[in-house]
Amino acid sequence: MSETVICSSRATVMLYDDGNKRWLPAGTGPQAFSRVQIYHNPTANSFRVVGRKMQPDQQVVINCAIVRGVNWGPRPGRSYCWSQTQESQQAGGGLRGAHSPQS
To answer: What InterPro entries does this protein map onto (predicted)?
Structure first.
């Protein structure tokens, strides 16, 4: 069985630059909204987040496994960010949604 999309949203994808201690837009070119989707693979019981810019080239700006031990939490405004364990390749990322989250 293949992966299925379990949720989808429009967001700006950001990656944390640890060296400069600041958030930077993911991908190349101008900052733009991306279609961010969470995929589930029922065979492996695994999840990943994929974001593609909502532009004609649909540049992939994030394709990251969601591993056990991920820290996820809301930030001020309409933002969420996560950080993963040191064993992972990707230290962290963030999403700034087009709409305010529901409580």
So the answer is: PH-like_dom_sf (IPR011993), WH1/EVH1_dom (IPR000697)
For residue 41, count other CB atoms closer than 10 A to its CB: 13
With b for 16 or more beta-carbon neighbours within 10 A and e for fewer, the 53-87 pattern comes to: beeeeebebbebeeeeeeeeeeeeeebbbbbbeee
Q: CA-CA distance, 87 to 79, in Å (whole number)?
A: 25
Q: What's the pTM value of the predicted model, to 2 decimals? A: 0.70
Amino acid identity for residue 86 in this structure: Q
Centre a 10 Å sphere on the Cβ of residue 51 and count the other Cβ atoms it contains.
25
Judge contact between 34 and 12, C-beta under 8 A. Answer: yes
User: Averaged over 32-47, what is the pLDDT?
Assistant: 91
pLDDT of amino acid 42: 94
- Give the chain's domains with CATH numbers: 1-69 (2.30.29.30)
Paired with 50 in beta bridges are 37, 63
Torsion of CA 95, 3, 69, 10, to 10 degrees: 10
